[in-house]
Design a protein that fits this description.
Layout (H helix, E strand, L loop, with lengths): L16 H11 L8 H8 L3 H13 L9 H9 L6 H13 L3 H9 L3 E2 L1 H7 L7 H16 L9 E3 L3 E3 L7 H15 L3 E3 H6 L4 H4 L4 H9 L1 H4 L4 E6 L2 E6 L5 H9 L2
Antiparallel strand pairs: 1-3, 2-3, 4-6, 5-6
């Protein structure tokens, strides 16, 4: 995976930006294809903020030239982002992108850190320190002041502390798990990969091990037997027995 830094114009996604876009999209689904002055007037955001909004809509899995299936379901069912599940799904989509969010939640996963630590760790990439520092500042604000503030992933004091033990809805977990099966194009998957792999659901959702294995142990019930869990000789494995309807799972997640 080739990681990309910057692109957000140093703005974290604000809590009302996605809703503003979706409301205008209902009136005109070509809104972001209009000239910049029209978009500024319609959305009430400055030029750089419009550039940032496009970045976030793409990375949150909502819109990239066209509204995604996820974006359509959010528009129809939770346009004001009142459901925690909607935000958690956006967070999941963001953590799949080749950005600092993927790196933090899937590789670094520090329980406590300072900005300087992330700058040092990201120095392996051929990117200027200013760009990296801006990415880290935006990352921290996104979760402490921006759209993900109410998910309470982090506490900001002398150190930035990650809150382990998040509550994750069964349908959100099922959607993410099935999505990983699809991304990897596999019908079986080691549970260890979901703990420590390149897409770690345990880490992305900041779950504790008890909560994570509770989901794994009841995955057959959650998935209506479409996914099976087996343990043999110490190896824990999930098997995809049949295809699932991702849009139906999303609707079950997002409907409020």
């Amino acid at each position: 995976m080739k990681y990309v830094f910057g692109g957000h114009e140093k703005f974290e996604c604000k809590s009302d930006w996605v809703s503003k876009f979706l409301i205008e999209y209902l009136k005109d689904n070509e809104i972001l294809h209009k000239d910049i002055d029209t978009v500024i007037a319609r959305l009430g955001l400055g030029k750089n903020m419009i550039g940032s909004l496009k970045y976030w809509l793409r990375h949150l899995g909502i819109y990239d030239g066209d509204l995604s299936e996820f974006g359509e379901i959010v528009k129809e069912n939770d346009i004001f982002l009142e459901s925690k599940n909607t935000l958690m799904l956006m967070h999941y989509h963001l953590c799949k992108t080749p950005t600092i969010y993927n790196l933090f939640f899937n590789r670094f996963f520090y329980l406590k850190f300072k900005k300087e630590k992330l700058i040092l760790d990201l120095s392996e990439f051929n990117v200027s320190q200013n760009t990296i520092a801006n990415d880290i500042d935006t990352f921290i604000r996104l979760y402490t002041q921006g759209i993900f503030r109410d998910l309470n992933f982090f506490e900001k004091e002398e150190y930035i502390s990650l809150n382990i033990g998040m509550s994750v809805d069964d349908n959100v977990f099922l959607y993410a798990l099935y999505d990983v099966f699809e991304m990897k194009n596999q019908i079986s998957m080691s549970v260890y990969d979901l703990e420590k792999g390149d897409i770690s659901l345990l880490q992305i959702f900041a779950m504790d091990e008890n909560s994570f294995f509770n989901k794994i142990n009841k995955i057959e019930k959650i998935s209506n037997s479409a996914i099976e869990y087996r343990e043999s000789s110490g190896f824990k494995t999930l098997y995809l027995k049949e295809k699932l309807n991702k849009n139906e799972i999303l609707r079950n997640c997002v409907e409020i």
